[in-house]
Amino acid sequence: xxxxxxxxxxxxxxxxxxxxxxxxxxxxxxxxxxxxxxxxxxxxxxxxxxxxxxxxxxxxxxxxxxxxxxxxxxxxxxxxxxxxxxxxxxxxxxxxxxxxxxxxxxxxxxxxxxxxxxxxxxxxxxxxxxxxxxxxxxxxxxxxxxxxxxxxxxxxxxxxxxxxxxxxxxxxxxxxxxxxxxxxxxxxxxxxxxxxxxxxxxxxxxxxxxxxxxxxxxxxxxxxxxxxxxxxxxxxxxxxxxxxxxxxxxxxxxxxxxxxxxxxxxxxxxxxxxxxxxxxxxxxxxxxxxxxxxxxxxxxxxxxxxxxx
Length: 309
Prior knowledge:
Keywords: Nucleus. The chain is mainly alpha-helical.
C-alpha cells in the first residue's frame, strides 16, 4: 500500500514513507465497496472481515492526508454497511477507533467548496441511512460516550464552518449574484444539519445513560460567548435539546440538582468550566430553550441565590 525510501544523513538512517499509492488504492477500493451487496444478501457473513481489520490499523487511521482520510472513511463505512446490523470487529477499542475516525472525518463537510465535498456528503448519508453509529451503543459506556461526544463536537464545528456562514455568493460572469447557487448552498446546509441532528438524537435516545461529558458539549455551545459568536452551533444545540428533551430530562435535572448542591458543574464539564456563574448561565439558557427541563430545580436555584446574597 505504500513504499519507502532510505535516506542517510549525519550518520543516521531515515525512512521516508510515500502515501500516494495508498490514496489510489483507497479510491479504487471505495468505488468497489460502494456498489457491494450486503453480506446477508449474498449469503457470505464473514466477507470483508479480514479487510476491515486490516484497514482499522493505526497506520491508516492516523494518516494525516485529508484525501486519504475521506476515501478510507468511505471504505470503512461501506464495509460496516455490508455487515449491518452485525459488528465485524471483535475488539471494542478497534471499533471505537473506527467510529471516531469516521465521525472526525465528517468535519470536511464544513467546506462545501472542497472538491471532495460530495464524498463527505456520501459518507454522511451512508452512516445516517444505515444507522452505523448505533454500533457505539455496543461499546463500554465510556467508549460510547467518546463517540457521541466527538459526533457532537464535530457537528457543531460543521454548523459553524466559515463557508457555511459566509453571506458572499458566487457571482456570474457579469458580476451579479447568482441566487440559484445561494439557494443550493442553503439547501445543502439544511440537509447536512438535518442528518447530523437525526443521528445525534437517535444516539441520545438509545444510549443507556447520557454522560456529563456529552452534556458538556451541548451546554458549551448554549451559553456565551458561543451563543453570541457562533450562532449556527448555538441554534444546533438548541434544536438537539428540544428534539431530545424526553431523553435528556432525567439526566439534566439530576446533574443540575447535584451541581446546585456543590455550587459548580462537575469536573467532566471541562468545556463549560467550573464556577457558580457558569452553572447559572446554563440553567438560564436551558430555561429559554426548554423550560420544563429546569422547572424542578428552580426552587433549589432560588435557595442557592438567596444563600449567596
